[in-house]
Amino acid sequence: MLRADAVSLIRDGRELLTEIELTVRPGEHWALLGPNGAGKSTLLSLCGAVRHPTRGSVEVLGHQLGRVDVRALRGWIGHVDPRHPLRSPLTVEEVVLTGATGSVELVPRWRPTARQRRQVEDLLALLGIAAIREARWPVLSQGERGRALIARALMPEPRLLLLDEPATGLDVAARERLLTSIETLADELGDLASVLVTHHLEDLPISTGHAMLLRGGRVLAAGPVDDVLTSELVSACFDYPIEVCRTEGRWSARAPRRARNQKGRPS
Q1: How far apart, in whole angstroms, are the C-alpha atoms of residue 105 and residue 114?
Q2: What string of pLDDT tens digits covers the 267 residues of the chain?
Q3: What does R_g of the chain's alpha carbons equal in angstroms?
Q4: What's the farthest any 2 CA atoms get from each other in the chain?
Q5: DSSP assignment letter at 142
Q6: CA distances (Å), 135 to each of 85, 93, 138, 183, in order?
Q7: Range of the domain at 135
Q8: Number of structural domains found in the chain
Q9: What are the residues whose beta carbons fall under 8 Å from the beta carbon of 224, sequence distance 6 or more?
């Protein structure tokens, strides 16, 4: 689905990514974690054929960037960005329909096919938002918007789904609904591969099978999630003592008690 081979990215004389190696296979669900400025969203932009590497090569769905029409390639990639720049008061159903045209707004004079209408119905049900199909974008909660954007990203039946901090701004209940929806996708769409960017281990769905830790644009660790999301490696990545726990498939992270108690505050 995705391969980055010795990838570096330089912009304005600054190296944002250095010698990145990443392979995502069908049905794998990856998480990219690291502190602010680590290069997570930059790497995701390469995965989504939005940017090209300065050095190295990136293959997305079997096509090497620089040797393929990226406009056509992006049609096979679902990209979920909570900062979706929609300005019109579209309904949830209309927002999902824009995924069929790859546009932010509805395309003038465009009419969806009967199949596309059925597809919207199925996705609204799958993401648990059928009851709010007529609700308009400005009145939606952040969690409802997140699930609508995932449904929108799935309209073109992508083989690769990219999620850029999808839980940003969500309260606990909204985050849990969103993560449940992502886990449902993993169960229902077995060959779909995904890459999710987050700062927080608590935002990872149970379906996460692989992880990469980035720091300063470099890979600190990558591989099966239980080998990567350890207290030692996560502490090194964030340059702070962190205890990582996993209970019933979900992660949590906190400072060790000795660090919290030192002088009455975290050290």
Answers
A1: 20
A2: 999 999 999 999 999 999 999 999 999 999 999 999 999 999 999 999 889 999 999 999 989 998 888 888 887 899 898 888 898 999 999 999 999 988 889 899 999 999 999 999 999 998 889 999 999 999 999 899 999 999 999 998 899 999 999 888 888 988 998 899 899 988 988 889 999 999 899 999 999 999 999 999 999 999 999 999 999 999 999 999 999 999 999 999 999 876 555 545 554
A3: 19
A4: 66
A5: H
A6: 18, 8, 9, 24
A7: 2-264
A8: 1
A9: 209, 210
Give yes or no for a contact between 243 and 237, defined as CB atoms under 8 angstroms apart. no
Question: Residue 152 is part of a domain; what is its CATH number?
Answer: 3.40.50.300
The answer for residues whose C-beta is within 8 angstroms of residue 135's C-beta and 6 or more apart is 91, 92, 144
Helix (H) or strand (E) segment spanning residue 130: none
What are the DSSP calls for 29-43, one per residue?
EEEEE-STTSSHHHH
- The model carries a pTM of 0.87
Q: What is the layout of strands, in order, in the sheet containing 193-198?
A: 77-80, 160-164, 193-198, 29-33, 210-215, 218-224
* Residues, the chain: 267
